[in-house]
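Dear support,

I submitted the protein below through the web form. The confirmation email said the job was done, but the results page showed an empty box. After a refresh the structure appeared. I'm attaching both so you can tell me whether what I see now is the final result or a partial one.
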Amino acid sequence: MDDVTKESLEQEDIELEKVEAEVKEASEELTEAQVKFNDLNEQFLRLRAEYDNFRKRTMTEKIQIYGNAISDAVTAILPAIDNIDRAAGHSDASPEDVRKGLKMIEDQIKASLENLGVKAIGEKGEKFDPALHNAVSHIEDAEAEENTITEVLQKGYVLGDKVIRHAMVQVAN
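What the results page shows now:
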């Protein structure tokens, strides 16, 4: 063989070795990337399963909390219901006794609501607040200040910052 062909073959062998080295290096990098991908995929699947379990557990707790809240509210008013039942059984009571019994039941219900954190709103003489009160009538009264509640037609109730029921009121001026 002549020198040019020999040199050309040697050059091709060198280039072939470089390409084989690059292929081997790329193959190793690919293997490393696949291992890393598999690890990350396993982490993702575990995290997804943990999140799914968390979501299910949270939903169960939410349902239990709702049931407990209803149970607590009913438990708070049961003594008043018991007293109403007892009062209904006494048909021979005097009107004064009935009035006293109703007052006691009213006080008991108010105390139960207070223990639950429920507060009554809407008192005569308060300033009208459209966020808390529902004005159903308007009167002109020279003695009352402007936007003042002159009569409460139906009390309202709040639980913390949440309005359970707006107070129905009459407003002056």
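Response: this is the final, complete result; the empty box was a page-load delay. Residues 118-173 form a domain with the Nucleotide Exchange Factor Grpe; Chain A, domain 2 fold (CATH 2.30.22.10).
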